[in-house]
Amino acid sequence: MARKLYPDTWLFAATIGLALFGVVMVYSASAVLAQSEHHGSFYYVIKQAIWTSIGLAALLIAMQVDYHRLRDRRVVYGLLGLTVLMLLAVFAFPAINGARRWIKFQGFSVQPSEISKLALAIFLAYFLERQAGEEQDFWRTFIPCGAVTAVLAALIVVEPDFGTSMMLAITFVIVIYTAGARLSHLAMAAAPAFLVAAGLLIFVPWRMARLVSFWDPWADPQKSGFQVVQSLIAVGSGGTNGLGFAQGKQKMMFLPFAHSDFIFAVIGEELGLLGTLAVLAAFALFLWRGIRISFMAPDRFGRLLAIGIVTGIVAQALFNMSVVLSMVPTKGIPLPFISYGGSSLVPTLAAVGILLNISQHARGSQRAE
Question: How far apart (Å, rounded) are the C-alpha atoms in residues 49 and 346?
Answer without folding.
Answer: 12
